[in-house]
Specification:
Largest sheet: none
Oligomer: single chain
Structural class: mainly alpha
Number of strands: 0
Strand content: under 5%
Order of helices and strands: HHH
């Protein structure tokens, strides 16, 4: 999960370990967004689904920015 991998990243053994775990967070956020988009739901749940898709997109941007910063 994104949360568990983020905790692991914050307890990393070094920069390479941190970066690897952040990349896993990015992958997990992408996977979450993918599966959320596949869910068919009624109008009541559709708003919540869209909020979760937006949140996963924001997490992807955050983790992507961290990866980009480390690759400079």
């Amino acid at each position: 999960s994104v949360g568990a991998n983020y905790i692991e990243a914050n307890e990393s053994l070094g920069k390479n370990d941190f970066l690897m775990r952040i990349k896993i967070c990015l992958k997990e956020a992408k996977d979450s967004r993918y599966w959320l988009r596949l869910i068919l739901c009624n109008d009541d749940l559709n708003n919540k689904k869209n909020e979760l898709i937006q949140e996963s997109t924001e997490l992807m941007k955050i983790f992507g920015a961290i990866v980009e910063k480390f690759n400079k």
